[in-house]
What does this fold into?
Amino acid sequence: MKPLKFVFPRLFQLSANKDVFIGESGKWVNGSWVWDLKWRREFFDRVSEAANELLSIISNFAPNAGCADGWTWIASPDGQYSTKSAYIKATRNETTMSIINKETLARVWDTPAPQKAIVTTWRILRNRLSTCDNLRKRNVPLGEEELKCNACIHQKETTNHFFLLCPKI
Ligand SMILES: [Zn+2]
It folds into this structure.
């Protein structure tokens, strides 16, 4: 039997009001907030259990009566979404190659080289090229022989091997 945390995403699929704000998902009754979640159909056992657990979790929460509903992007201090804040959020825990720091990486974009050379350089420094080892990390099914460098056919094809170590290249 699946744990309830795997059933919660299904609840969202069954919600009849996916795009509404919190204020539209309940009402104030005698000073207390009462949730009024709407569903597209009746539930079966596990989903019904998950819906009850969801209601018990959110029952301790009540919206602020004097505040307008709205969306907040928690990755930026002002709550407003921007591409820059999404990029920072997405790359915060990433490790770059040890030979280069983030400031140096940012300066790649200021060079007068052609745009495609800049993009390729950035991809090399971030280890984002479609080398065999990176393809395998992204679940592309490659056998052991297919992982080898296409030039020397001896070593595993990695960015470092391809640009720095391969004797054929
Ligand atoms: Zn090679």
Summary: DSSP finds seven helices and two strands in the chain. The CA atoms of residues 10 and 47 lie 8 Å apart.
